[in-house]
Write a structure and sequence with these properties.
The chain has 2 helices and 10 strands; from the N terminus they run E-E-E-E-H-E-E-E-E-E-E-H. With about 170 residues, it is mainly beta. The protein has a single domain, classed as Lipoprotein localisation LolA/LolB/LppX (outer membrane lipoprotein receptor (LolB), chain A).
């Protein structure tokens, strides 16, 4: 998979099957970690775009009563992420955890009639929220294999480590 971001800063997140790469051109560094060891939440969420079963990444799934959809014909589901919390106590109707524990939740907005994923909202326990919007889905487009291989640009340092730590240090 490959994700390219333009805002808040330009960067590339790429998983080539062996490694996950996080490249921020302005920092002149790329973080590399074994894809099997990556705990970055985008790895499982990105797989939602394929044929991944939600039960593999969600402890619990349900209708998010308190989360508004961007489009009136869509429905919003909550996904309590697997491995994000050990506590099941104190959850409200949307699966969010109250003071009894901390739970990472992803909200998945889908077109009710087709099930097409149109938006993902992730709110981590620290209060940071990220939103992804999807449009113009293309299934099995012809893309060169090289698009999914990271080529380290000249003058860029490779840092081996966990992506979460690299992302925190790269954020403003």
């Amino acid at each position: 998979m490959r994700w390219e971001y333009e805002a808040p800063e330009k960067n590339v997140f790429l998983v080539d099957g062996k490694n996950a790469w996080f490249y921020v051109p302005a920092d002149h560094t790329v973080t590399r970690v074994s894809a099997k060891k990556s705990t970055d939440w985008r790895t499982p969420l990105a797989l939602l775009a394929g044929e991944m079963k939600l039960s593999r990444i969600c402890n619990k799934i349900g209708i998010a009563q308190q989360q508004a959809s961007a489009n009136s014909t869509d429905v919003v589901l909550y996904c309590a992420l697997r491995g994000a919390s050990k506590s099941e106590e104190g959850k409200d109707a949307d699966g969010r955890t109250g003071e009894a524990g901390v739970q990472e939740i992803a909200y998945l907005e889908v077109v009710e009639s087709s099930g097409e994923l149109v938006r993902v909202l992730v709110n981590d326990p620290g209060g940071v929220g990220i939103e992804f919007r999807f449009t113009n889905w293309q299934f099995n487009p012809k893309v060169e294999d090289s698009f999914f291989r990271f080529q380290v640009p000249r003058g860029v340092a490779i840092v081996n480590g966990e992506l979460g730590a690299a992302q925190k240090s790269a954020s403003p």
